[in-house]
Amino acid sequence: MSHLQCLTMATALILLQALSTVSSTILSRADRITRLPGQPRVGFQQYSGYVTIDDKKQRALFYYLAEAETKPISKPLVLWLNGGPGCSSLGVGAFSENGPFRPKGSVLVRNLHSWNQEANMLYLETPVGVGFSYATESSSYEGVNDKITAKDNLVFLQKWFLKFPQYLNRSLFITGESYAGHYVPQLAQLMIQYNKKHNLFNLKGIAIGNPVMEFATDFNSRAEYFWSHGLISDPTYKMFTSYCNYSRYVSEYYRGSVSSMCTKVMSQVSIETSRFVDKYDVTLDVCIPAVLSQSKVVNPQPQQVGETVDVCVEDETVNYLNRRDVQKALHARLVGTRKWTVCSNVLDYEVLDVEVPTINIVGSLVKAGVPVLVYSGDQDSVIPLTGSRTLVKRLAEELGLRTTVPYRVWFAGQQVGGWTQVYGNTLAFATVRGAAHEVPFSQPARALVLFKAFLGGRPLPEDF
């Protein structure tokens, strides 16, 4: 986007800021959801539809907004992004994790721990080619990378505010998980840069769960996690840390040249950890639906010849979002594909971007005064808590931040919700006890306590 275009956009947004509530309602009326099929009656408003981010190439991003259950005008706006890269914030975030509903058969049931109890929740299917987001030219799905995604997400927000100018001055938080450890900090960085000239975004903080922030540290913490949880033997642990660590394996895998040593090590690791243990939650003895297998880059698992393991018998979300009546209610359409999928099968993402660290960007946000929360489900072996904890502590030391909340337990109800530590006034780390890679799915009540404290800028509860 050129400087002139940015200026035009900023001018338009400033003018829209002065619009009446009636006028702003007219702008978003076409995207209002009357009622989703099978949905219980609720008192809050829902919107969904498209924001065209590139008129020339007809690239459009799909969003879903669930306004706050009570007093939406007084509550912040929270953008949620799922990872992958290439997996849906609608199917995973909204309908499986922290949105107001979850599909069950032909109907929707209420999520009693939905995050729209505390905020207006905006879910974005990004980048183009994910979920209902589309481009009319298939070439737009090729060579997509972190830089393109961040810019597209910025343009999306600018144009989304044209539809919803009532949110312009609202406190804005960006949240997400997994590969959103790239998406979220990169978008926040662009917003801060944009604000230097146009002061558009009222960014109040970011929160990232089990995030990829630094390739080697995050990926190589897997070996210690496997070993400490009894998933691999002592000799295999030694091989996994001495001869071929996980970052080397992933790097070789995505360059199409896995060495014989890494093949040998990974084969032994796979045998011992067992394909019947879910790496996203090593303690779970039942199936997590396929909709939650949102990690492509962080957990590459090439299918073995003759492997016919049925991950899950039924996928409620996929079935629901592929219904014609549901798509009509969502104002959604399928372009260039016959089926909505949780993780895109048309997107060609630059997977080696995973090797580019974002922890330094997180540091720049902290220095700019943006509060950052890094949280980890402690049953996840894909991006283990040990790597995230190490990175946050190292960052705090580099920035010269003193500990303001020493490492301690926090509570959700009458149970320990996890552990936390806070550095300065802007950097915090927390674990969520018993949670998987997708924290709001696996520990919804504890995740809501964490979310509420984050929005309020308060330490997590230290008693019940």
Q: Care to describe what's here?
A:
Its EC number is 3.4.16.-. It is found in: Secreted. Residues 1-24 form the signal peptide. It comes from Arabidopsis suecica (Swedish thale-cress). InterPro entries: Peptidase_S10, Ser_caboxypep_ser_AS. This protein has 464 residues and is of the alpha/beta class. It has a domain at 3-214 and 354-456: Alpha/Beta hydrolase fold, catalytic domain (Rossmann fold, 3-Layer(aba) Sandwich). Helices cover 36% and strands 19% of the residues. The chain has 15 helices and 15 strands. The strands form 3 sheets. Strands 1, 2, 3, 6, 7, 9, 10, 12, 13, 14 and 15 form an 11-stranded mixed beta sheet that branches. Helix 5 links the parallel strand 9 and strand 10 (203-209). Helix 5 packs parallel to helix 12 and helix 12 crosses helix 13 (385-399). The protein is globular.
Q: What would the keywords be for this entry?
A:
Ser_caboxypep_ser_AS, Rossmann fold, two-stranded antiparallel ribbon, 36% helix, carboxypeptidase, EC 3.4.16.-, 15 helices, alpha/beta, globular, 464 residues, 11-stranded mixed beta sheet, protease
Q: Enter the CATH topology name of the domain at 3-214 and 354-456.
A: Rossmann fold
Order of helices and strands: HHEEEHEEEEEHEHEHHHHHHEHEHEEEHH
Percent in helix? 25-40%
Q: Mean pLDDT, nearest integer?
A: 90
Protein structure class: alpha/beta
Secondary-structure arrangement, i.e. CATH architecture of the domain at 3-214 and 354-456? 3-Layer(aba) Sandwich
GO molecular function, one term: serine-type carboxypeptidase activity
Family: Belongs to the peptidase S10 family.
Protein name: Carboxypeptidase
Subcellular location: Secreted
